[in-house]
Structures are given as C-alpha cells and as structure tokens.
Design brief:
alpha+beta, Peptide Deformylase, five-stranded antiparallel β-sheet, 3 helices, 7 strands, about 30% strand, binds nickel (II) ion
Length: about 190
C-alpha cells in the first residue's frame, strides 16, 4: 500500500465529474487500499477519488471504525436537516458550517461490485453526502454564504503556498497541529 498525494483546492480535478466504475480490476482494489491508507494518515473520515487525482466514481469512509467503500453511490432517500461544521482533506485547516439532510439512504456497490445500502445520520450522514458531492465536482465551500465563502477563500490564498503544485503530501504519524476535536470534521 502507499500513501497518495492529496490534491488541494485550486486543482481542477476537484471540480470534474467522475466516471462510473464498471470493471473491478486488481488496480481498482489497489486504489481502494491506497485511499484508505491515505485517509487514515491524514486523520480523515472520508476520501473521494478526485482528491487523489483520479476519475473513478469511488469514495472510502471510516466513520468511528465503520468502513465503507462506495462505488457509483446514489442518494435514494433524504429527510430532515442537520448543521455540521465541515472540513475537507483537500482544503486543510479551513472549516465551515454546512446544512445538509439529517438522514440519507445511499445505494452503492462495494469493492467487489456487490450492491448494498447504507443509511446514515449525524457524522455518517454528513460524510456520505460530502463524499458523494466530491464525485460530482462539488465542495463544502459551495454551500457557504457568499460572505463566508469569500472569507474562507481569502484565508486559503495565504495557506495555498504551503502546497506547491496544489499537492499535499501526508506523512504518516505526523501531528497535523489540530486538536482531536477536529477529527470528525475532515471529510
Ligand atoms: Ni472533502
């Protein structure tokens, strides 16, 4: 397994639509394993393929030890609403309150191509919606008010030089400087 470079805000790949997966090759299995390793090294709870520069419609989640591989996921039910402070591994150190559905039901394929259904509320529900957005070129900052988005983008301009080539290299075991209460917000 290997840790993949994470693409950060400004890389056009984060705004591209992904392509549905139709073949389950050893290369895909390798990508899934590498994405889990990358996400864990970055202390995240979710990671989508575009964040590592790929175009497969694939995301991985690890929400409090519950792991999911989502291939070609679709939200088939949504209800109520929840406000959550979200961050993103592709926009390090930036956070914002996002209102999303409070409960979602998602249909997807697992790593072997077998269909399954997952229902999520709270962090799992938020993470499912955040990662599925990534697969359609959408980021959490798109939900912020104009004013909050502009403020965040201005702050990001100062952070960006830390990531030459818009690439974030994650070093395993490295303290990311955030306190542990942020662990549930790196989607
Ligand atoms: Ni994200």
């Amino acid at each position: 397994m290997s840790i993949l470079p994470i693409r950060v805000l400004g890389d056009p790949v984060l705004r591209e639509e992904t392509k549905p997966v139709d073949t389950f090759t050893p290369e895909l299995q390798q990508l899934i394993d590498d994405m889990f390793e990358t996400m864990h090294a970055a202390h995240g709870v979710g990671l989508a393929a575009p964040q590592v520069g790929r175009s497969e419609r694939l995301a991985v989640l690890d929400v409090h030890g519950a792991r999911y591989v989502l291939i070609n996921p679709e939200i088939v039910e949504r209800e109520s609403s929840i406000k959550w402070e979200e961050g993103c591994l592709s926009i390090p150190d930036m956070y914002g309150d996002v209102t999303r559905a409070g409960r979602v039901v998602v249909e997807a394929l697992d790593r072997d191509g077998k269909p399954f259904t997952v229902e999520g509320t709270e962090l799992l529900g938020v993470c499912l919606q955040h990662e599925i957005d990534h697969l359609h070129g959408k980021l959490f900052i798109d939900y912020l008010s104009m004013l909050k988005r502009q403020k965040l983008l201005a702050e990001w301009e100062e952070e960006k030089p830390k990531y030459p080539g818009l690439i974030r290299i994650v070093v395993p075991g490295e303290d990311d400087g955030d306190d542990d209460s942020r662990e549930d917000e790196k989607l």
